[in-house]
Specification:
This protein has one domain (about 35-445): Porin. Helices cover about 10% and strands about 50% of the residues. It contains 5 helices and 17 strands. The protein has helices spanning about 1-25, 175-180, 185-190, 350-355, 420; strands spanning about 40-55, 75-90, 95-100, 130-145, 145-155, 195-205, 210-220, 235-240, 245-265, 270-285, 290-310, 315-330, 335-345, 360-365, 375-390, 390-405, 430-445. A hairpin with a 4-residue loop joins strand 2 (about 75-90) and strand 3. It is globular. The protein starts with a helix and ends with a strand.
Length: about 450
């Protein structure tokens, strides 16, 4: 009897063991979901009711939003509308597409003369026009923790595609930590460092959690426009995050040749013209309070065209510095926040050397956004009321003050007055554009 029981026990144990072994070799189809390609439509828009309470009489500011807009003007306007679509082709490939309409104002608006060149995305009939801002494909984990992005994509200087959510390698860039693009661009974006470009990029992590990462890109340097020369814009960025990603340190560098070895009639010979920017971004961010700093130095070789008393043309280097500091935080969680920011911009780093030359008659910058004569101080502050998630209503003040780096009554060593060198920008008084706004911002599809 005992032998029979023993045999039955051994038989049952053998059957159980065989069953377990069979279960181990079966594919775990019940625990791994089958991949299905899918897409997601998303977008956002922001605009304002704006009243201009003060204006710089000299009309300085270049392509700033409110340059030359008359005092006491008021209007409702969109400043950005986005419509995007992300599509997961496979587990390894994600496509991103974005239509954008931005800067909805033309030189003919707000009492100005019609028919002048538009500064926004405006058609010939002054209607708002969309354009293709992003169109790229991401090859995820081309190698461990590194993605390859090809197409029209965000550059390393700015947001890395937060709309991609889990696919984005870095969502704590300077623009995203500032978090108020609906109020104003970052300080380097104001100077038109490309926020997106057509090219190829590698975005990766040095660790497995994204605390240390990099982003390198080569692009046309022309954003959404066709390439205009043989030279490419090189972008690079490295970042580190500490204390559970509360402290962010980000170092950026770019370089582009503009005119290289181009013959110039006169005594100069070939013209060598390039630019390179170094930018540091540091921020400490928590749900209750965020403090951020962004500063840059941009050196543009041979950018300032000088007409000499000897009637020859010479090219001189310009240097520009910018510093931006901001704070934002919660007054009432998920309902009411505050923000404040101050920028100081000084493009006159080499101007005194240029105008002190006794041979200088006039000068002009080749890069309009880095005209060396005018310094700027920018201030904005306001409240962010969120009546429901993804809807923001923000009363705010936008103010930019312009100061000439040269005195209009001054003269150089040859006795040429500074005002006659560049009458458009050498003025003896400060000027301020002041705009009072009620900004609205809403997000959909995310």
């Amino acid at each position: 009897m005992n032998k029979t029981i023993t045999k039955i026990g051994l038989s049952l144990s053998l059957v159980a063991a065989m069953g377990a072994a069979h279960a181990q070799v079966q594919p775990a189809t019940d625990t791994v979901a089958e991949f299905k390609p899918s897409g997601k439509l998303w977008g956002y828009a922001f605009g304002d009711y704006a009243y201009k309470g003060g204006a710089d009489e000299a009309g300085r500011g270049g392509s700033n939003q409110y340059t030359k807009v008359p005092v006491n003007s008021n209007e409702f306007q969109f400043r950005r509308i986005y419509l995007g679509y992300n599509y997961e082709i496979s587990r390894k490939f994600v496509a991103e597409f974005l239509l954008a309409s931005e800067d909805d104002w033309a030189s003919g608006s707000l009492g100005q003369t019609m028919g002048q060149t538009s500064n926004g995305d405006i058609l010939a009939n002054n209607k708002f026009a969309p354009y293709v801002k992003l169109a790229n494909i991401r090859w995820r984990n081309l190698w461990k923790n590194t993605d390859l992005v090809i197409g029209q994509a965000p550059t390393p200087a700015f947001a890395q595609g937060s709309a991609l959510g889990e696919y984005a390698r870095n969502t704590q860039t300077s623009e995203e930590v500032w978090g108020y693009r609906s109020i104003e661009r970052t300080i380097t974006d104001i100077r038109r460092t490309p926020s997106y470009d057509f090219g190829a990029a590698l975005q990766g992590w040095f660790d497995s959690k994204g605390n240390f990462g990099y982003d390198v890109m080569v692009g046309n340097g022309t954003s959404a426009k066709p390439d205009r020369d043989a030279y490419k814009w090189l972008y690079s960025d490295v970042y580190a995050k500490f204390f559970n990603k509360k402290l962010v340190i980000d170092l950026y560098q770019d370089y582009e040749k503009l005119d290289w070895g181009v013959y110039v009639k006169g005594l100069n010979g070939p013209r060598y013209h390039d630019r390179n920017m170094t930018k540091l971004f540091v921020a400490y961010t928590t749900p209750k309070l965020t403090v951020g700093y962004e500063g840059f130095m941009n050196t543009i070789l041979g950018d300032v065209a000088v007409t000499g008393i000897d009637k020859n043309t010479y090219y001189r280097t310009s240097k520009a510095m910018g510093n931006s500091i901001y704070v934002k935080g919660a007054i009432k969680k998920d309902k009411l926040n505050f923000f404040a920011r101050y920028d100081n911009y000084d493009p006159s780093g080499n101007l005194s050397n240029i105008v002190s030359d006794a041979n200088v008659k006039t000068y002009a910058a080749s890069t309009a956004t880095y005209e060396p004569t005018t310094k700027e101080s920018f201030v904005t502050y306001g409240l962010d009321f969120t009546p429901t998630k993804k809807v923001h209503i923000m009363p705010n003040i936008w103010m930019n003050t312009y100061t000439s780096a040269l005195s209009a009554t001054g003269k150089n060593a040859a006795g040429t007055s500074y005002s006659s060198m560049n009458t458009a920008n050498v003025v003896g008084v400060n000027g301020t554009d002041v705009v009072y706004r009620l900004t609205f911002y809403y997000i959909y599809g995310k």
